[in-house]
Amino acid sequence: MQLDLRVDRSSPVPLYFQLSQQLEAAIEHGTLTPGSLLGNEIELASRLGLSRPTVRQAIQSLVDKGLLVRRRGVGTQVVHSQVKRPLELSSLYDDLEAAGQSPATKVLVNTVVSASTEVAAALGVPEGGDVHRVERLRLARGEPMAYLCNHLPPGLLDLDTVQLEATGLYRLLRSAGITLHSARQSIGARAATAAEAERLTEAEGAPLLTMRRTTFDDTGRAVEFGDHTYRPSRYSFEFQLLVRP
């Protein structure tokens, strides 16, 4: 595919970075779709008037991000675009839809369990009392994206497995008349356990993004406690930072 790529030699931004940003934008916007071949480095370098090492550096930066892969005998190929999730009170399902990723869900567990100390504290329910536990595997374009484990207070809403596989949890909460207002959230990273690696088709010990969130409605009631793991090659969180006056 012939892309409209340009570099500005008068810009202080390194040439390789200008090229990698344009290629990344083409992948994210769907101009370069998964499976597309990028073309060889020599042709790309000649067309843009760049050195081959500069083009190689641009491509390698996208290989490192997991957006491109080098296949022997095939060439450089687009793997997928990475979903960039803004830090706001939204569901993964909605974010994937907004990114054009065609989300799908596989429900692994949908049952009532006894609240652990951590879950009870998060939801404000008695320890050992009943809470609803839902475990789901979220997929995008047929690939595992995240493993989602959520606990909800008893009697909040009817969690039907068919509905959970058809739409997002936050949509079900809203459809039940629950107004989501705020959340307390923490983000981290750790190595994948054997079970997590198998679920997300990663190697055991591979790095995973983690997110824990307690969500509150407009009355201040905790309505869900989520403990999620994400594949960092497919997913990232975006922050907007402001200087305090």
Point out poorly predicted stretches: none
DSSP strand tally: 10
Main sheet specs = 6 strands, antiparallel
Topology order in helix (H) and strand (E) letters:
HHHEEEHEHEEHHEHEEE
Percent of sequence in beta strands: 25-35%
Span of the ends, CA to CA: 48 Å
**Strand order of the biggest β-sheet:** 4-5-6-9-8-7
Helix content: 25-40%
Oligomer: single chain
Radius of gyration: 21 Å
Global shape: elongated
> What structural class do you assign from the helix and strand content?
alpha+beta
Mean pLDDT: 83
Q: How many DSSP helices?
A: 8
Account of the 3D structure:
The structure is a single chain. Helices cover 28% and strands 33% of the residues. The chain is built from eight helices and ten strands. The strands form three sheets. It has a six-stranded antiparallel beta sheet with strand order 4-5-6-9-8-7.
Give a quick rundown of the structure.
By secondary structure, this protein is of the alpha+beta class. Helices cover 28% and strands 33% of the residues. The chain has 8 helices and 10 strands.
Could you list some keywords that capture this structure?
alpha+beta; 28% helix; two-stranded antiparallel sheet; elongated; 33% strand; six-stranded antiparallel beta sheet; single chain; 245 residues; 8 helices
